[in-house]
Amino acid sequence: MLVLASCDLFTLKPEPGSRNYEWTLDTLYMPMNSLYSVWGASPDDVWAVGPGGTQYDRLLHYDGTQWSTYTNEIIWCGGQTLFGFSADDIWMGGDAGWRDHGAGIWHYDGNKWEKYYVYNPDEDYWGIDITDIWGNDPNDVYACGIRGFYNGTNSWWKGFVLHYDGTAWHEIVRTDFNSQFHRIRKEDDKVYVFSYGINYETGDGDVEFYLVKEDSLEQIYSNKESEIRWADLSSIDGKVYLIIDSDVYMYKRNRFEQFLHLDNEEFMQHVCGRTENDIFIPMYDGIVHYNGTDMEYIYRFQDKNLRFASMPLILGKDIFFGILNLESSVYEMVLHGRRVEGRSKK
Question: Which end of the chain is more exposed for a tag (fewer CB within 10 A), N or C?
Answer without folding.
Answer: N
